[in-house]
Amino acid sequence: MEDRIELKVLGITMNSIHSDAYAVLLEQVDGPYRIPIVVGQAEAASIAMRLQNQIPPRPFTHDLFTSVLHAFGIMPDYVMIHSFNDGIFSSYLHLSSATQETELDSRTSDAVAIALRTGAPIYTTREILERTGYMVDENGKAKREQRHVKLEDMPTERLNERLKHYVDSEQYEMAAYVQRILQARENEAQGDKTD
Q: Which of 135, 161, 178 is the last residue in one of the domains?
């Protein structure tokens, strides 16, 4: 099996740019890394309810899915966050029953919410941990400053990736901002050709 590192859910934080976006903060078990994963409001509420051991008056979708798994004797063995592309984490749930094993593709937020309800461990790879995470000291403070590259300073190829990510995640204000930067670059390039 691939090299894997266990993570635990540390908590939920609000996104400082968009009030309707949240981040699940995952922490390396017995290690210095933390990984923030952006999730939607519904997923954040579902994860937060479980972290606070609250029981909703009616089951959330993740509660229902977990009940279905248990009713049919299916056990979530673990969650694997296996890739990170275009700003999006991809995961799968490894499930087993008395007769078979399977892996189901899952949004990371859903996989984490289900793992919290079933006690399934959450794993990722060393490469994803180092690429997307940041290190903290024993007091929980970042060991190094996170590098924040201004959108204006990003190469065009990277800006196009960010544009796709913002559109896919319905962050239209940020998408429009990136589009303006790309348009300004295109206008500047065309101006250079006419001189």
A: 135
